[in-house]
Amino acid sequence: MGDFWVFGYGSLMWRPGFEYLETHRAHLYGYHRSLCVKSHIHRGTQTRPGLVLGLDRGGSCIGIAFRVAEEMREEVTTYLRERELVTNVYHEKPLRVTLDNGHGVDTLGYVVDRGHSQYAGRMGMDEAARHVCGASGRSGPNEEYVINTLSHLHTLGIRDHWLEGVAARITGKHPF
User: Does CATH place domain 4-171 in 3.10.20.30?
Assistant: First the structure.
């Protein structure tokens, strides 16, 4: 089968947790990065869920594509399923991306299941900020998650204007 590719759009970009041969900045069409997943463990509780990232339909997303050696396929796929499919709020799906060198590759990716109870739907910046502010879970405050995500995206040279707008509403200032 040969080497395979994995697409990361959130924490997978800076904390993949698996071995890879190379990375490329990658553009995915048809999905966008969004705070559209209710978190009731890591960034919230059952009574006060926070929001974490998901790939939702529409638009586009710049992320990172990781090329993984064929002999690591089973190990990496098992790891990703354990990481991403804990509550089954995501669907594992092949996603076609365009690498920064212009080549198109098929990647393994995870998109939000719009029919899942954790799907928060499409929100405006104000509404998303209201959900994030004050939510906290096992992994810490939800505000910290959003600001940390933007910091990492900025380090990678990736802009996400919608997420920046949410962060500006959380902090009262533009984060970058």
Answer: no
The Cβ of residue 170 has, within 10 Å, a number of other Cβ atoms equal to: 20
DSSP state of 119: B
- For residue range 33-61, list pLDDT tens digits in order: 999 999 999 999 999 999 999 999 999 99
How many Cα atoms within 13 Å fall on the side-chain side of residue 1?
Answer: 11
pLDDT, mean of residues 71-100 = 96
The structure tokens listed for 38 are 């209710």
d(CA 95, CA 164): 25
Compute the CA torsion angle 93, 79, 159, 100 (nearest 10 deg): -70
What value, to the nearest 5°, has the Cα angle with vertex 102 and ends 19 and 97?
55
Ordered alpha helix ranges (H), the chain: 11-14, 73-84, 125-132, 142-155, 161-171
Which tokens sit at 21? 């041969």
SS3 assignment, position 84: helix
Q: What pLDDT is attached to residue 152?
A: 93
Q: What is the rounded CA–CA span in Å between residue 30 and residue 96?
A: 10
